Amino acid sequence: KQKLPPGPTPPTPLPIVGNILQLNTKNISKSISMLAKDGPVLTVYCGMKPTVVLHGYEAIKEALIDQGEEFSGRGSFPMLDKIAQGFGVGFSNGERWKQIRFSLMEALCLAEALKKTDASPCDPTFLLGCVPWNVISTIIFQNRFDYSDQKFLTLMNSPWIQVRSGFLLNLYNAFPFLRVLPGSHNVFKNYAIQRSFILEKVKEHQESLDMNNPQDFIDYFLIKMEKERHNQHSEFTMDNLIATIWDLLTAGTETTSTTMRYGLLLLLKHPEISAKVREEIDHVVGKNQSPCMQDRSRLPYTDAVVHEIQRYINLAPTSIPHAVTQDIRFRESLILKGTAILTDLTSVLYDDKEFPNPEKSDPGHFLDESGNFKKSDYFMAFSAGKRACAGEGLARMELFLILTTILQNFTLKPLVDPKDIDITSVHKGIGTIPPFYELCFILV
Ligand code: HEM
Question: Which residue range is the domain that position 161 belongs to?
Fold first, then answer.
């Protein structure tokens, strides 16, 4: 255990100002924000463990970026720990994590599927969910599924984000000793379905592997495993392969599709924003070719809309817990090795100095006076530092291409007057699922 160099005696460990019992588990992020108003750093007790909550841009930046190495441990997340058991990329630590973290067509398939709705009212949840599933699936298994494939439907039918961020998960994480919670068996049942699918795919890949011609993530991993067969310390193991595939499938699917789903809701509420995006696309890309990533820099308004959707919906209000990798001094306080760290991303994405009127969804938050795209360090939807989202680039690409492809091809028509669409639940953070809604996709 690394000893801290002698220095001035640090003040007593952080004051304990809260207790999980005082947090409203229905909306843990909001409760944390309320508690954290008193200062940028506070300690709460989650179950029996002290957890440090960081609030506001300065404290979060100082921890995740300036002291990034020490804050790069992954904190405990009991429900997922039980599943991941320390393997994979998202919930592993140290060498294991370092070794494994690696590195338009689907948007068009989505447009085709939306055309088939024939402008009649539909809930786009399922179709939006197919896109990221197929993108990840192509990277990992080198195959996409038809949207009516039975196996695909079974796999997709595992609502992870709801579980990850929902009430049930908060409760389970706060009180891990409550092993039997109503509904928790579904989580493990879903995991069992996913795991057996992954095992089947890995087996198929092992049988057809051509060491000189890897086709996808599994092939690369299997080759690396073979090369490191004699290295006892290698992290390229079967357990890690399975856990990493699971991490990518879960972390990279509902996050993106839920963002898009909320995003469409915001666009239904603000038809003037959709109209402006379409105008920009028409002007820059035209009607006859599909938007691509190279167009992004020439579509500042559209880029700002995608950022604003992510800022406003605040998908991961308290991110995923970190843990400090050693005893450290942080802001005059001593934080002991292993202490869980929660970053209150809401306090950054809703900072009213950086984003005036943050409760209002306004693409102007990311535009300067001349209408150019304005980057903001406060855009922490993917967190920041060494442990930031591993799929950020992919997610941004998907969100941009899905949004531009939809708006190039369709006008979104709500079934109710936009002023009656309630988006207040959207930014309330954790545990809120957009209400069931339908809309018509009218071909332009
Ligand atoms: C809109 C979409 C997404 C959002 C808002 C999002 C957000 C996040 C956040 C906040 C974290 C926690 C970072 C931290 O602990 O500091 C995270 C971690 C992670 N995300 Fe994402 N994510 C998205 C999409 C994706 C995609 C598409 C993938 C995969 C291809 C992905 C893979 C991961 C992984 C593997 C981690 C764990 C990284 C690690 O522990 O080193 N995410 N994401």
Answer: 20-103+106-443
